[in-house]
Amino acid sequence: MSDQEEEAFKVIQSHRQGVLQSELWKLLDIDSRKCSRIVKRLLDAGLIERIEFRSDGIKTYLLRAKKRAIDPCIILAGGEVLPCIGCDQECTPEECALLLDWMYQLALEEYQ
For this UniProt entry, which segments traverse the membrane (predicted)? Predict the structure, then answer.
């Protein structure tokens, strides 16, 4: 991904409700034609979705980042799921014994 594509993707991700394509090129300080090419590449890569949108009678597109599936390996260590998922204890991550044990197990797996 080029620097401009990466920057465009970050801008789109930062707007939870999406960003209008007609605004994106202004935010990126590029011309609308170049923005269209960047949007096409992001669409082809499956990173964003484009929804037709009418603003003051003018057709444009709402761009939203697609949510990607999380790799389950990220939340597993030693066959155990990250303890914070579903945790009802009120603690701080720096002082949570369950989380520290889980992280220790993860470090051991990386070392081996």
Answer: none
Provide the whole-model pTM: 0.61
How far is it, in rounded angstroms, from Cα 12 to Cα 57?
23
Q: Of 3.20.10.10, 3.90.1150.10, 1.10.10.10, 3.40.190.10, which CATH number belongs to 3-65?
A: 1.10.10.10
Q: Are 10 and 3 in contact (CB under 8 A)?
A: no
Q: What is the pLDDT of residues 90-112, one digit of tens each?
A: 888 888 888 888 888 878 877 76
Number of helical (H) and strand (E) elements in the chain, helices listed first: 4, 5
What pairing do the DSSP bridges indicate for beta strands 19-20 and 58-65? antiparallel
Residue 80, both tokens: 């155990």
Residues ≥6 apart with Cβ < 8 Å to 62: 18, 19, 20, 21, 50, 51, 52, 53
